[in-house]
């Protein structure tokens, strides 16, 4: 017998990733892969799948272990050196709170989603890729929790993030986004998360948070960002391979895929409105405006991507033009939502300072001074008179994205955009044509939406008063919520800075 | 269009979560003061359909919109009202239902001459 001393890379890769399947003898293929056909996607030849990353499982473990070692060394040093003292300002921590409660649980959802897809896709190539991504996502949620647990020792609002993710009104926005994807078929999930989110929109999530962390002295977050980066680039490559593969396999796949691209682009755009607000309002030291980020990462990068995909007949997502026009408004509109509902949020809010408003005027020359500066100035005057502005009623929510219906008509920032549909004798309300279209395509699904405001009215959220509901969310009232000024977080930060000044003499 | 689902009878098994029966005798009513976007969106309430429109005017509006400096200046006789897009003239004695307000109806009102803080629609 001739034993091969050392296999070539290609040979080794092939042996470790191909031929692992078998032909079933006593079960039908459709019984083993029950999710493979109902979405209408036609695949003729799974062997045409090109693995974007020629990575085998043994190499995967080795790479990931090395990254973990580096990450945890940095985290230890961050903790030992009181890294939180190096932040630009205590306000920054609110971006971390939003990330931990809103984004980290999505990593776990992504882990579950890819594990499911990895089980149910009949082709062996994408099954291996989905399995690796599933493990990546599990690693990401773990490293994020470990990293951010340091802040939990010193700041409020981080203590109950999984509980809050499942209950708090604004966290139903990212939660329902992933619930929607995970309850879709495996191919839609692949397009929703692998392509629309990981490929088209992910830079708009990770670059702002990671650059924002770097600019604001949060070395811990920067480090887990770096540690996730090589995974993310693999996920992006998987996302683009999925869409090309589906479109190359059968021309009948195009209209189905196009509808998913349209839907998930719009859903992703709505979720990213939280990032828009974080960039423009929550970072003490700004990186760039949301509008600039949108231009670079969607208009330019997305533009050339869809140019490339046009050879398959795929077009730019529907309402991309509306989303681009909204880039001048959404961060301001979202921050206004949180400012007036600050009593019901798990992080603090504030009004932009005079310098920050000048920065916003410069970045949003056609909209900020006209529509949004007066709003903040009015609230500033009211606060000065001791009448800080709160909205004491609960907001109307969009049935699809679950965000308060705060967005304005395309082309008319003075009028709320109201859309509605009728289904089985009931009325459903939407913030936009994009959200209405999604409902109209699948009213069976979205008529089951768990809308936090309606759930409160139905008596399912701990009680009828705001205080009872917030306790049911496990918010520590007076600590986690309300203005940054006067919060325990701010008081502690001020004491630290004062002590540092005394020491410096 | 038929729903795309693994389960053949999926559409028949759907439980509509916000059926009026789930609101303990109330209906959900949305209210929106136009041109005053410091109130970020329409606001939602569970009201009995028999509630007189006058209670909305006398209790609900001042409680939830009274903080706005324009509120005291509203000329109530001149206000334009719509319920689900249809113009209505409120009768304080009559019920919400009498005004065509049903489950998940949207009531919008415009206050002539008032366009928000310094005319900014805020």
Which features characterize this protein?
heterodimer; A: 505 residues; 4% strand; globular; B: 122 residues; alpha+beta; Ubiquitin-like (UB roll); 5-stranded mixed sheet
Describe this structure in words.
The complex is a heterodimer of chains A (505) and B (122). Chain A is mainly alpha-helical and 505 residues long. Chain A has one domain: Ribonucleotide Reductase, subunit A (Orthogonal Bundle), CATH 1.10.620. Helices cover 61% and strands 4% of the residues of chain A. In chain A, the strands form two sheets. Chain A has a two-stranded antiparallel sheet with strand order 2-3. A two-stranded antiparallel ribbon of chain A has the order 4-5. In chain A, helix 3 (57-80) runs parallel beside helix 6, helix 9 (186-215) packs parallel to helix 11 and helix 11 crosses helix 14 (330-340). The mean pLDDT of chain A is 94. Chain B is of the alpha+beta class and 122 residues long. Chain B has one domain (26-119): Phenol hydroxylase (Ubiquitin-like (UB roll), Roll). Chain B has helices at 10-13, 53-65, and strands at 27-33, 43-47, 80-83, 86-88, 105-110. A five-stranded mixed β-sheet of chain B has the order 2-1-5-3-4, with no helix packed on it. Chains A and B meet through helix 14, helix 16, strand 1, strand 3 and strand 5 of A and strand 1, strand 2 and strand 5 of B. Strand 1 of chain A pairs antiparallel with strand 2 (43-47) of chain B.
What is this structure, in a nutshell?
The complex is a heterodimer of chains A (505) and B (122). Chain A contains 21 helices and five strands.
Query: What is the ordering of alpha helices and beta strands of chain B?
Result: HEEHEEE
Query: Rough shape of chain B?
Result: elongated
Structural class of chain A: mainly alpha
- CATH architecture grouping of chain A: Orthogonal Bundle
Order the strands across the largest sheet of chain A as they lie in space: 2-3
Fold-level CATH name of chain A: Ribonucleotide Reductase, subunit A
Give the total of domains of chain B.
Answer: 1
Low-confidence stretches of chain A: none
């Amino acid at each position: 017998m001739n034993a091969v001393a050392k296999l070539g890379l290609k040979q080794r890769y092939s042996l470790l990733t191909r031929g692992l399947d078998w032909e079933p003898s006593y079960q039908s293929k459709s019984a083993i892969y029950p999710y493979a056909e109902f979405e209408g996607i036609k695949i003729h030849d799974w062997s045409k799948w090109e693995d974007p990353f020629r990575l085998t499982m043994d190499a995967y473990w080795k790479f990931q272990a090395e990254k973990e070692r580096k990450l945890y060394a940095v985290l230890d040093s961050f903790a030992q050196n009181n890294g939180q003292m190096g932040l630009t300002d205590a306000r920054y921590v609110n971006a971390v709170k939003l990330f931990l409660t809103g984004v980290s649980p999505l990593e776990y959802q992504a882990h579950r989603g890819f594990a499911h897809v990895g089980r149910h896709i009949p082709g062996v190539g994408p099954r291996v890729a989905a399995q690796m991504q599933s493990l990546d996502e599990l690693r990401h949620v773990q490293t994020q929790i470990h990293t951010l647990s340091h802040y939990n020792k010193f700041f409020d609002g981080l203590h109950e993030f999984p509980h809050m993710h499942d209950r708090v009104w604004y966290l139903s926005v990212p939660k329902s986004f992933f619930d929607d994807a995970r309850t879709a078929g495996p191919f839609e999930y692949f397009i929703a998360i692998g392509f629309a989110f990981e490929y088209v929109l992910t830079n708009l999530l990770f670059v702002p948070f990671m650059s924002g962390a770097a600019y604001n002295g949060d070395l811990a977050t920067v480090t887990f960002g770096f540690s996730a980066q090589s995974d993310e680039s693999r996920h992006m490559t998987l996302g683009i391979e999925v869409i090309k593969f589906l479109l190359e396999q059968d021309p009948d796949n195009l209209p189905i895929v196009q509808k998913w691209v349209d839907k998930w682009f719009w859903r992703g755009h709505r979720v990213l409105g939280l990032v828009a607000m974080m960039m423009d309002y929550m970072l003490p030291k700004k990186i760039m405006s949301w509008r600039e980020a949108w231009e670079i990462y969607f208009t330019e990068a997305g533009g050339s991507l869809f140019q490339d995909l046009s050879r398959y007949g795929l077009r730019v997502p529907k309402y991309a033009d509306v989303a681009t026009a909204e880039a001048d408004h959404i961060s301001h509109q979202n921050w206004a939502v949180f400012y007036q509902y600050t009593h019901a949020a798990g992080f603090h809010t504030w009004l932009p300072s005079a310098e920050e408003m000048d920065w916003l005027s410069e970045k949003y020359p056609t909209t900020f001074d006209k529509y949004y500066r007066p709003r903040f100035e009015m609230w500033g005057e009211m606060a000065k008179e001791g009448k800080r502005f709160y909205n004491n009623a609960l907001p109307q929510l969009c049935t699809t994205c679950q965000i308060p219906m705060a967005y304005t008509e395309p082309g008319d920032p003075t009028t709320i955009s109201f859309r509605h549909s009728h289904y089985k004798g009931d009325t459903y309300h939407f913030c936009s044509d994009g959200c209405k279209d999604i409902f109209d395509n699948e009213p069976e699904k979205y008529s089951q939406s768990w809308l936090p405001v309606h759930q409160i009215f139905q008596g399912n959220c701990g009680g009828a008063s705001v205080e009872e509901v917030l306790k049911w969310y496990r918010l520590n009232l007076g600590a986690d919520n309300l203005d940054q000024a006067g919060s325990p977080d701010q008081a502690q930060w001020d004491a630290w800075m004062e002590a540092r000044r005394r020491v410096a003499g | 269009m038929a729903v795309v689902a693994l389960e053949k009878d999926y559409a028949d098994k759907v439980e509509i979560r916000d059926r009026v029966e789930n609101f303990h005798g109330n209906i959900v009513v949305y209210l929106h003061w136009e041109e005053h976007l410091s109130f970020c969106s329409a606001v939602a309430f569970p009201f009995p359909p028999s509630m007189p429109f006058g209670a909305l005017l006398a209790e609900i509006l001042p409680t939830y919109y009274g903080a706005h400096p324009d509120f005291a200046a509203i000329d109530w006789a001149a206000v334009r009202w719509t319920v689900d897009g249809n113009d209505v003239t409120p009768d304080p004695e009559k019920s919400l239902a009498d005004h065509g307000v049903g489950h998940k109806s949207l009531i919008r009102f415009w206050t002539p001459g008032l366009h928000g803080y310094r005319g900014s629609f805020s």
